[in-house]
Amino acid sequence: MTHHESVRLTVGEQSLDLGVEHATEGNNGINIAPLLKETGDVTYDPGFMNTANAKSAVTFIDGDQGILRYRGYAIEDLAEHSSFMEVAYLLIYGELPESKETLEAWETNILRHNMVHEDLKLFFNGFPRDAHPMPVLSSSVSGLSTFYPDSLDPHDPEQVHISTVRLLGKLPVLASYAFKKSLGQPFMYPHNSLNYVENFLRLCFGVPAEEYDIDPDVVKALDLLLMLHADHEQNASTSTVRLVGSTQANLFASVSAGINALYGPLHGGANEAVMHTFDEIGIRKEESREDAAARAKAWMEDALAQKKKVMGFGHRVYKNGDSRVPTMKAALDRMIEHYGREEMLGLYDGLEQAMDEAKQIKPNLDYPAGPTYHLMGFDTELFTPIFIASRITGWTAHIMEQRAANALIRPLSAYDGPEQRELPAG
Questions:
Q1: CA–CA separation, 161 vs 9, rounded Å?
Q2: Which one of 17, 170, 217, 376 is least enclosed by Cβ atoms within 10 Å?
Q3: How far apart are CA 285 and CA 221, in angstroms?
Q4: DSSP code of 10?
Q5: pLDDT above 90 (res 143)
């Protein structure tokens, strides 16, 4: 990519030299800060598709090449050689744990802060049993700030650290409670003999009357899912978290806002929509892979003929395929083999093939993630809260980065309403 020290912008008869913020990799940023003052005009970029709001060292994406890196490390390498707890440390602190002891201390610290105040548990009684876990989770995360007023100062590094550890420890517990509430089952206490992922599975599927058997294959698959979902640059929810964080709001408030942004079906809710598609086609256990694929392909052809939007395909950033999909698809294949569910693979293949033949549009991460969550036993409505149990690591990293060189985020608009007018007489 050609490096320019400045760019000249001509507006009418006026020319303005704009500086360039050079990126380590990828797109440079033309600094338009002087534009409004010098010309009286602003840029217009719906959806911010051409706008970089921040300089960030957290995540690099090259959508054309299908590249995703956390702090410089390829997601494929991290998925093969690291754990979610290592990735969480990497995103938040910028480097991988320097030793096994550092990693163990990090995870132990999080586990020691996973208990939820008993009064906060009463909070869940105020929601209907059939409430979607997302607004329940958003509300309870926001409520954490009322229980920990001693660690809300965004300018105190120690308070920021303890809030980060509390959030990482407690959010999986809160997500499981939202799930248990919908089932009418008692809440489980976390157990510090288990690691982060094992604890989350036990909290969701365990019951007080018996021991919960940990399935190592499921633990491995969920750990991988959490790594792949940990961060994804300046997407809608991350931008929301940074925007709220720029007001100096506390960590819990910022993350609560991000959860609400992630609730939308065009963002985090897409993995739920994928399973709704599978359900609409019909999941028939013991069906052959070939028969399931034929039904799925026919469904997709009909949906495309009706111009329906089918979630799980295409991506605003990745133009030649989502770099996370091959790793996640391999995990899905292992889950399908583990549970003997060939019909799920047939549905997956049929939909993918029909979309490729008709539109040449490739799957995104939500497409293999949805069926994987399903095979693990999670209800569809819990898919996005699981996503959040991972994404809070990336959100936290971005909030810290925003605060380090903070500027209140306050976009402008190009007003297209009526000009000034007078009130009607009388």
A1: 43
A2: 17
A3: 22
A4: E
A5: yes
Query: Which pLDDT value is given to residue 2?
Result: 59
Residue 189 CA to residue 192 CA, distance in Å, equals: 10
> Helix, strand or coil for residue 207?
strand
Under 8 Å between Cβ of 270 and 325: no
The residues pairing with 74 across neighbouring beta strands, listed in sequence order, are 69
Tokens 């925003």 belong to 402
Q: How many CB atoms lie within 10 A of CB 312?
A: 25
Closest CA to 293 of 345, 335, 254: 345
- Residues in contact with 339: Cβ distance below 8 Å, sequence separation at least 6, in sequence order: 375
Instruction: Return the axis-axis angle of helices 100-111 and 157-183, rounded to nearest 10°.
Output: 60
d(CA 314, CA 360): 9
CA quadruple 116, 118, 119, 123: dihedral sign: positive
Closest CA to 343 of 278, 391, 394: 278
In a 3-state reduction of DSSP, which class is residue 144?
helix
Strand order in the sheet with 6-11: 6-11, 14-21, 29-30
Residue 99 CA, chain-centre distance (Å), reads 28
Q: Which amino acid is residue 424, in one-letter code?
A: P
Tokens representing residue 106 in the block = 């990090």
Average confidence (pLDDT) over 20-25: 89
State how far the Cα of 46 lies from the Cα of 413, in Å rounded to an integer. 10
Q: What is the DSSP letter of 186?
A: P
* Phi-psi region at 47: left, alpha or beta (left = phi > 0; alpha = psi -120 to 50): left
Q: What are the structure tokens assigned to 86, written together? A: 């290592």
Count CB atoms within 10 A of the CB of residue 103.
17
Q: Which region among 137-146, 199-208, 294-303, 311-320 has the lowest average model confidence (pLDDT)?
A: 311-320
Nearest to 369 by CA among 311, 423, 316, 325: 325
What is the CB neighbour count within 10 angstroms for residue 392?
A: 26
Task: Give the residue numbers marked as catalytic.
Answer: 315, 366
| Residue in the block written with tokens 């690691």 | 195
Q: How many helices (H) and strands (E) would you count in the chain? A: 17, 6
DSSP 405: T
Question: CA nearest 324: which of 238, 390, 237?
Answer: 390
Residue type, 96: L
